[in-house]
User: Which sequence fits this backbone?
């Protein structure tokens, strides 16, 4: 259960968004991906879960389900919370008819409980707050017990307490499933609490690769600029290209 | 400098825009073809979810019915209003029912119902799928290993193909009823006269062709609308663009199909 990425290149309309990216994540490990907006973080996750195809390079993932949570939840707005979370168990061809209504109710309630939610099964996504939508989308993503979990900005736009709930959840879920995880984030709290290693992207390249401790020591000038939230530094915020 | 001025000439910009339009056209055409291919595979294997088919069928047929019946009836009323007094004056009062029947079954009820369905159902299919796509709901579905083509598009296209003939046959009846009523009011054509004449204008062949044609109209409208929505990328503005595209392409498609059916069956 691991992810191995080698010499990954992805272009959009002639512009190299990812240029020769290599890294590995082992099972039981969480890799944090940081970088400015537009640096290709979401693109990496989409390549790994097969939503996009690479122009060159190799992605190897060991067998098992890959789950991904999206930056803006991506809950099905025509289904209620119960139907959203049970969606893969009900609709995936290999699971069709395998779970009774009772099973599903139990599984959904359990998953909601771990995320600090209850009695919202009948609500529609538009009736939930952003943080609740995010948590419901996590429950939906992991209901099939995936071996690889990719989180795209799981804590963006959440209050500190909700963030902590989610960070702890990412860690405990990883331990429970012995999963391989990647977390795209801009938040230092998430980096500190939920990741083991970090890669940092800038202009399509990896400019920092190391453990979270090394990252937080800020000896790398790129890491330092990110942590200090400094305008001055090796990275030009007003990227022109 | 010279390059700069060349790029500013009207003809350069015109050619460039035309090239872009052509590319858009081909891309849309390709998307529709690709989606058709995937949809037809599921349909031929009869992998159609019954519940979703029923849900989409009722939406396709019943939600649009008030608009469809109104548009078809209004067309029938106006035509009858225009020709009934003239025909009666020329001594052709006995042909009004027959003419109405021929006009309705061969052309009007299918195409007018098609227009109504495009505006009611096609546009909603397109905007629905487009907004799902730009909010990553379709990507999420793929990651959850549920094929969005099977889950979203197959039931809609099947519903369109199955339900459109019902919509059209119903709207023909209602249209003919109003045509007769108006012929009676404006030209004094009796109900008996109208119906007797009408029966002479209803040919089995016309009705069969009408039903077949409308099934293809319904399938095409649903497929094109879903495909345009499904392939949307970007944001709210692109949802609008895709919806417009779905409507325009559906209009063109049924006009084209209508022509093909006319050639196949009436030449
Ligand atoms: N489908 C696409 N077509 C064209 N360009 C794209 C597409 N997806 C992403 N891009 C471009 O690729 C670049 C990287 O996008 P990506 O979404 O991966 O950034 P990100 O690092 O996740 O940014 P953010 O922090 O804002 O989420 C951006 O410049 C974006 O415009
Ligand atoms: Mg992103």
Assistant:
């Amino acid at each position: 259960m691991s992810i191995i990425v080698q010499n990954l290149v992805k272009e959009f309309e002639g512009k190299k968004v990812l240029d020769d990216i290599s890294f590995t994540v082992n099972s039981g490990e969480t890799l944090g991906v940081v970088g400015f907006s537009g640096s290709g973080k979401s693109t990496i996750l989409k390549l790994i879960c097969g939503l996009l195809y690479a122009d060159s390079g190799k992605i190897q993932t060991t067998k098992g389900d890959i789950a991904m949570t999206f930056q803006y939840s991506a809950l099905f707005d025509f289904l209620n919370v119960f139907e959203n979370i049970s969606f893969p168990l009900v609709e995936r061809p290999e699971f069709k008819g395998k779970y009774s209504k009772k099973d599903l109710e139990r599984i959904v309630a359990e998953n909601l409980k771990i995320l600090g939610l209850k009695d919202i099964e009948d609500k529609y996504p538009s009736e939930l707050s952003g943080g609740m939508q995010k948590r419901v989308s996590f429950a939906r993503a992991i209901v099939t017990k995936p071996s690889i979990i990719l989180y795209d900005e799981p804590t963006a736009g959440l209050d500190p307490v909700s963030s902590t709930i989610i960070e702890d959840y990412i860690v405990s879920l990883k331990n429970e499933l012995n999963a391989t995880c990647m977390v795209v984030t801009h938040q230092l709290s998430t980096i500190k609490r939920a990741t083991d290693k970090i890669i940092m992207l800038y202009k399509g390249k990896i400019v920092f690769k190391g453990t979270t401790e090394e990252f937080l020591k800020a000896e790398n000038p790129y890491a330092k600029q990110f942590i200090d939230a400094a305008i001055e530094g090796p990275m030009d915020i007003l990227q022109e290209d | 400098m010279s390059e700069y001025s060349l790029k500013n000439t009207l003809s350069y910009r015109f050619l460039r825009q035309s090239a872009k339009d052509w590319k858009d056209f081909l891309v849309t055409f390709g998307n529709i073809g690709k989606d058709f291919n995937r949809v037809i595979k599921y349909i031929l294997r009869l992998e159609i979810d019954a519940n979703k088919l029923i849900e989409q069928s009722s939406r396709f047929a019943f939600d649009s019915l008030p608009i469809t019946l109104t548009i078809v009836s209004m067309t029938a009323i106006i035509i009858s209003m225009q020709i009934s007094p003239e025909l009666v004056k020329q001594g052709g009062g006995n042909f009004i029912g027959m003419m109405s029947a021929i006009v309705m079954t061969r052309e009007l009820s299918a195409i007018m119902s098609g227009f109504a369905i495009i505006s009611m159902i096609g546009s909603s299919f397109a905007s629905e799928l487009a907004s799902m796509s730009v909010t990553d709901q379709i990507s999420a579905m793929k990651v959850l290993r549920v094929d969005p083509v099977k889950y979203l598009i197959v039931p809609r296209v099947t519903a369109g193909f199955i339900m459109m003939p019902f919509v059209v046959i119903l709207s023909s009846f209602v249209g003919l009823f109003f045509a007769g009523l108006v012929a009676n009011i404006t030209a004094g054509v009796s109900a008996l006269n109208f119906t007797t004449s009408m029966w002479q204008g209803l040919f089995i062949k016309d009705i069969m062709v009408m039903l077949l044609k409308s099934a293809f109209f319904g399938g095409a409208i649903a497929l094109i609308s879903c495909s345009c929505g499904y392939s949307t990328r970007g944001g709210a503005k692109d949802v609008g663009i895709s919806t417009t595209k779905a409507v325009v392409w559906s209009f063109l498609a049924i006009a084209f199909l209508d022509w093909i059916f006319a050639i196949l069956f009436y030449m």
